[in-house]
Amino acid sequence: MAARVHELTGQRRPFVHATVVRAQAPTSAVPGDDAVILADGSIEGFVGGVCAETSVRAAALDTLRDGNTVLLRVLPNESEQFPSVPGAQVVVNPCLSGGAIEIFLRPMLPRPLIGIAGETTPIGAAVVTLAGFLDLEITKPMSYAGASAVVVAGLGRGDEQAIRAALDAGVPLVALVASRTRSAAVLDSLGLSPAERARVRPHAGIDIGARTHKEIALSVLAEIIRDLRATEDAPHAPLHLTDISEMSGGRTAIDPICGMTVVIGEDTPHAVVDGVEHWFCCAGCRDRFVAA
Fold it and tell me: Is the entire prediction scored with pTM above 0.85?
């Protein structure tokens, strides 16, 4: 599974790494078993049987949304004697075959991409250095697809081309490092539409009285982070700033046999009885419901 985790990280795909940290017989999982849960809810690897996977899938998708790690305790019933852990999320899984397990869920979110035009200038170089400290990933030069923001710090060298390239790549925020006068001239020369103009921050940077190159870089990145934070649905979520386009829609249903909450996906056991749709944690619950 380590190779798969490395592969997904390199592909900048959001996922959750789930690892069994404690297990009580007769559960089939053992400490060290692990799996990855992708943003579409699919699971690769092993952290327990079908019913345990149902609980893991639902909790994992929640961690992708808020970015928080979770210790998930899956118990067969509320009275199960299993050493408690403060702060753990407890799920009672009546389908579980007698055992209990604890699974650590760690969301792995791609770092936000920041493009820099003019990274060899003193201000551009300072932006690169500070971006690394802030866990921001720098794109390749002039490769802005998927970037959350682009800093244009060419100081008069190719600024217009960089702004045009960033806007054409769909970058939502372009920070132009220039004086107010030159910023106005650059933007006027581009003939931007109102919508494009709204995506550019002329004379970028929060006013902190910056004088040095590093201070200017700090003010620019502070403005970028502030603006991007303002667009997030969860203000306290990690600054991953990515469009998780494959994220499961989060539709859930209650298994009418065992009472579990299940995430509805392509592989979720399903049945239509008397014109009503029902979803189940496993094929066993579905078959029992249909036969009743």
Answer: no
